[in-house]
C-alpha cells in the first residue's frame, strides 16, 4: 500500500470564531490563528482543518458561503489567509480547508441571480419545485422554502439561508472544481468535505444521503481537482457504514482519503429518536463493538479510518464519555490514549487537548447556534418545557464546543480583550487553560503531544492489525500486532476500579496516565487507568 503523509498525521480542527481574537471585537480571526501557530507547533500537529472562513452572512457560522473566493470580513482578508498559509508552512503545518458544496448561502451571487431571473442558467444550479414534499430540514421544519416572486419552492436541507446546490448540473460541478483548484494553487493541503454524502440526493424520491450518483461525482471531482496532488480529503458522512466508507476511501477507487463516520457518536442519542432525546446512560459495550467493527473492517489498503471524539457540532467528550469532576484530567488522557492508538488519522478539536468541557448554559439568550434555536422554537410550540429544552441543549447542543478557547485564567480567558465575546467564556477557564497546561508537565496537553509524536514515529500504528480483548464490560483493551511486534492498549472507561486478568510482561511502557507498567502484577485497574505497553 502506498503511504501518504496523512497516514502519519494528526489533524487539529480550528473553529475560527472561537480560537483567538486579535482585534478585540469578541470574535476569533485569522490573525489570532497566526499568533497561536507556535502553540500548535509545540503540540506537534501535522495539519489544521480550518472550519469555514469564507465570505458569509454567518447564518450558520460560515457554513453558509456567499463567496468561495473571498474571506469573511470578521476573519480578515485574503492577505491574512495567505500569510496564515505561509506562516503555517514555516512551522511544518499544513492547512486543510472546509469545502461546503452541498449548499451555498442564499446571498451567493449564483442564488441571487437564480432567484431574480428564473430564465438564467443559474436557476438550475439550485433545486426548484412547484410543490414541496415531506423532506425536512436538519434545522427543523420543512426543507422547502417558498419563493414568492417565481411561485416555486427551493430545497434547503439546512437553514433556509442555505439553498441546496443541484449537482446534476454539469456547469455547476465544473465551477466547484475550478474553485477547488484555485485553493489548491494557493497551497492548501486538502479539504474536509461538509455533508458530502448529500450531494447525490434525489429530492423527488426523498433520497438525501448516499444517492445513486454520489460516487460518480466524487470520482469526477478527483479527476478534475485531486489527482496526483497528495492532498488529504475527508468527507463528513453521517450515514456511512464500513462498506460505504470503503467505497469512498479504497485508494483504487480514487475518491477520498477517508471519511468521518459517526456510528460511535450515535451512542450519545437514543436509538431511533430525534437527536435531542439524548441517551441518559452511555453504553461502553456498544462503543467497543462499534470501534472494533470499524477497525477490523477497514483493513489496510482497503480503506482508511478517521478517529475523533469531538468537533464543532458535538458536545465535549469529557461531558459525555469522560468525567468532568475529580477524574477530569485522568479521563481526558484515557480517552486520548484509547482513540489515538487505533488505526486511522486522529483529529483533535480545539480545547480537547486541555480538557475543555460543556458550558452550563442558563437560558436561550446565551445560545447562538441556529440548530439549537430552531429546535427550541419548535419544541416550545409543541408544549415542551423550557427546562427540558435547556437540559437537551446543555447536553447535546453545538454551542458547547464553540465557546472561546481558554488560553489563560485572565480576562475572557485570554481569548479577547472585548467586554463581551460572541459566546460566553466558560467560568472554568480559571483552572482549565493553555497557560496552566503548558506549565504542568503532567497535564493533558503533554499526553496529546506524546500521542501526536508517536503517530509520526511508530509504524505499527499504521500497519498493526487490531484485536479486541475480552475483558470486563467497562474495560476497553486491544492489541495491535505487526510482524513480531505486539502492543497492548488498556483503558478503564469508568470511575470505578475494574478487574483485569492478563498476565503479561513488558520492557517498555509506550504511554500511560498512571505509573510505569512493567509487569501487570495487579489484577485490578483503578478508575480511568490507561496505558499502552510493548509486549515481550
Ligand atoms: C455540517 C457542519 C455543520 C453545518 C452543516 C451545514 O454538518 O459540520 O456545522 O451546520 O454541515 O453546512
Ligand atoms: Ca476579531
Instruction: Please give the number of β-strands.
Output: 20
Hetero ligands: alpha-D-glucopyranose, calcium ion
Distance between the termini: 28 Å
Total of DSSP H or I helical runs spanning 4+ residues = 15
Q: Residue-averaged pLDDT, rounded?
A: 96
Sheet-strand content, in percent, reads 15-25%
Low-pLDDT runs of 5+ residues are none
Major sheet: 8 strands, parallel
Radius of gyration computed on alpha carbons:
23 Å
Shape field: globular
In order across it, which strands form the biggest sheet?
11-10-9-5-2-1-13-12
How helical, in percent, are the residues?
25-40%
SSE-based structural type:
alpha/beta
Question: Can you offer a commentary on this structure?
Answer:
The chain is globular and about 75 Å long. 28% of the residues lie in helices and 16% in strands. It is built from 15 helices and 20 strands. The longest helix is centred in the first third of the chain and has 17 residues, at 170-186. It is an alpha/beta fold. The chain has an 8-stranded parallel beta sheet with strand order 11-10-9-5-2-1-13-12. It has a 5-stranded antiparallel beta sheet with strand order 14-15-16-20-18. The structure holds alpha-D-glucopyranose (GLC) and calcium ion. Calcium ion binds at residues 21-23, 25, 27, 29.
Amino acid at each position: 500500500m502506498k503511504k501518504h503523509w496523512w497516514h502519519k498525521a494528526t489533524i487539529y480542527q480550528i473553529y475560527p470564531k472561537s480560537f483567538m481574537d486579535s482585534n478585540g471585537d469578541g470574535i476569533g480571526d485569522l490573525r489570532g490563528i497566526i499568533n497561536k501557530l507556535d502553540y500548535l507547533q509545540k503540540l506537534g500537529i501535522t495539519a489544521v482543518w480550518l472550519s469555514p472562513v469564507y465570505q458569509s452572512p454567518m447564518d450558520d457560522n460560515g457554513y453558509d458561503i456567499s463567496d468561495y473566493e473571498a474571506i469573511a470580513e470578521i476573519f480578515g482578508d485574503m492577505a491574512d489567509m495567505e500569510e496564515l498559509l505561509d506562516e503555517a508552512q514555516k512551522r511544518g503545518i499544513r492547512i486543510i480547508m472546509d469545502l461546503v458544496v452541498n449548499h451555498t448561502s442564499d446571498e451567493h451571487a449564483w442564488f441571487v441571480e437564480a432567484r431574480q431571473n428564473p430564465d438564467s442558467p443559474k436557476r438550475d444550479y439550485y433545486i426548484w419545485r412547484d410543490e414541496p414534499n415531506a423532506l425536512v430540514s436538519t434545522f427543523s421544519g420543512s426543507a422547502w422554502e417558498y419563493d414568492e416572486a417565481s411561485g416555486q419552492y427551493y430545497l434547503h436541507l439546512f437553514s433556509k439561508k442555505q439553498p441546496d446546490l443541484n449537482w446534476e448540473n454539469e456547469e455547476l460541478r465544473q465551477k466547484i472544481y475550478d474553485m477547488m483548484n484555485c485553493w489548491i494553487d494557493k497551497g492548501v493541503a486538502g479539504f474536509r468535505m461538509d455533508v458530502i454524502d448529500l450531494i447525490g440526493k434525489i429530492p423527488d424520491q426523498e433520497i438525501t444521503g448516499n444517492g445513486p450518483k454520489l460516487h460518480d461525482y466524487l470520482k469526477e471531482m478527483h479527476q478534475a481537482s485531486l489527482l496526483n496532488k497528495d492532498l488529504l480529503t475527508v468527507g463528513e458522512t453521517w450515514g456511512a457504514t464500513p462498506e460505504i466508507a470503503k467505497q469512498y476511501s479504497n485508494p483504487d477507487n480514487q475518491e477520498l482519503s477517508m471519511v468521518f463516520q459517526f456510528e460511535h457518536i450515535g451512542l450519545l442519542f437514543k436509538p431511533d429518536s430525534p437527536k435531542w432525546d439524548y441517551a441518559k446512560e452511555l453504553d461502553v459495550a456498544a462503543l467497543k463493538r462499534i470501534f472494533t467493527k470499524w477497525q477490523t473492517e477497514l483493513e489496510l489498503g482497503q480503506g482508511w479510518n478517521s478517529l475523533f471524539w469531538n468537533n464543532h457540532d458535538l458536545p465535549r467528550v469529557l461531558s459525555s464519555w469522560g468525567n468532568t469532576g475529580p477524574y477530569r484530567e485522568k479521563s481526558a488522557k484515557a480517552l486520548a490514549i484509547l482513540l489515538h492508538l487505533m488505526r486511522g488519522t486522529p483529529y483533535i478539536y480545539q480545547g480537547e487537548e486541555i480538557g475543555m468541557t460543556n458550558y452550563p448554559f442558563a437560558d436561550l439568550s446565551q445560545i447562538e447556534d441556529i440548530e439549537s434555536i430552531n429546535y427550541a422554537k419548535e419544541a416550545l410550540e409543541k408544549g415542551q418545557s423550557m427546562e427540558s429544552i435547556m437540559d437537551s441543549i446543555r447536553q447535546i447542543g453545538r454551542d458547547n464546543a464553540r465557546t472561546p478557547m481558554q488560553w489563560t485564567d485572565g480576562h475572557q480567558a485570554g481569548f479577547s480583550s472585548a467586554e463581551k465575546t460572541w459566546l460566553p467564556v466558560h467560568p472554568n477557564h480559571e483552572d482549565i487553560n493553555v497557560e496552566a497546561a503548558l506549565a504542568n508537565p503532567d497535564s493533558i496537553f503533554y499526553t496529546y503531544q506524546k500521542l501526536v509524536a508517536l503517530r509520526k514515529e511508530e509504524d505499527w500504528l499504521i500497519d498493526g492489525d487490531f484485536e479486541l480483548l475480552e475483558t470486563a464490560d467497562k474495560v476497553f483493551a486491544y492489541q495491535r500486532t505487526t510482524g513480531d511486534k505486539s502492543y497492548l492498549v488498556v483503558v478503564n472507561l469508568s470511575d470505578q476500579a475494574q478487574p483485569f486478568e492478563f498476565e503479561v510482561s513488558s520492557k517498555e511502557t509506550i504511554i500511560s496516565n498512571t505509573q510505569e507498567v512493567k509487569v501487570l502484577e495487579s489484577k485490578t485497574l483503578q478508575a480511568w487507568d490507561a496505558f499502552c505497553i510493548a509486549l515481550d
